[in-house]
Design a protein that fits this description.
Blueprint: H1 2-35, H2 40-45, H3 51-60, H4 67-80, H5 94-129, H6 134-148, H7 151-165, H8 178-209, H9 212-219, H10 224-261, H11 267-276, H12 280-308
Helix pairs in contact: 1-12, 5-6, 5-8, 5-10, 5-11, 5-12, 6-8, 7-8, 7-10, 8-10, 9-10, 10-11, 10-12, 11-12
Length: about 325
Amino acid sequence: MDARSSDLKYWIRRLVNSLLVVWGVSTLVFLTLRLVPGDPVESILGETALEVDKESLRQCLELDHPLWEQYWIFLKEVGSGSFGQLCDQQGVTVMSRLLTAIPPTVELALASLLLAALFGVPVGIWAAMRRGGAVDAATAVVSLLGISIPNFWLGPMLLILFSLTLRWLPDPGAGMEGLSGLILPAVTLGSALAAKISRMTRSSVLETLEQDYVRTARAKGLAERIVIGRHVMRNSLIPVVTIMGLQFGALLAGAIVVEKIFARPGLGTLLLEAIFTRNYRLVQGCVLVIAFANILVNLATDLLYTRIDPRVKLR
């Protein structure tokens, strides 16, 4: 009973902290948008628009109210889950636009995460088993390149090579849909994460290989694949799962640039359009969704710890 009570208190505390984080992020976004110089009404309609149209849009955006009242309206819109109505599309809420933009971005992030794990974990194990050799040095160089090359440079280079030169994959203007349209964006977004996972896996495996239970398993005559798969890998996964969980939010943020490069629809494209047009409600909604996704991934990572290693206690 004490253990269950302790776990319940832990999750209540985590939930309260998560709600406070969401509130802090929403407040920061609200204030930052309104501190940006310039009139959002003129940015949306242009300076030559009629005054009656400007005033109508100003009322729709609640910019005719005091700042504290705008903030209260903003909190009510967030609490309702709609994030407010769009002024350029009558009857359409911000949430409805987000629901159409989220699936392509989640698809890209999951594909990048899967690609990074499939590449990074085996390479990290391979490098650890050949510590100090040519394979270890080569994987270190490749990982350093993967971390150092920015995706806003790697993406266009991959497009030039595979779409324009070799003609193996369609270019963004042709409508990159399906698996063929997901390969290059996933490689671009997941390359840096794959490099981080490989180095983290290598370090974790090397540390686990020094443990007494691994020496005992080898002394008992177990095959090396059994020692690695049953004794080393499971105890080496927690740091790897940690970095994968923390980096999933970075993948959502990095998708902003990648979606623009490959002309993909998604949350990043919607956020950039909202920033260019100074659409307060859309910007707020996109940022809050990304922040909330980070919180959910962190909670899921905590739950996954107990599945990987039952010795980990939530309390």
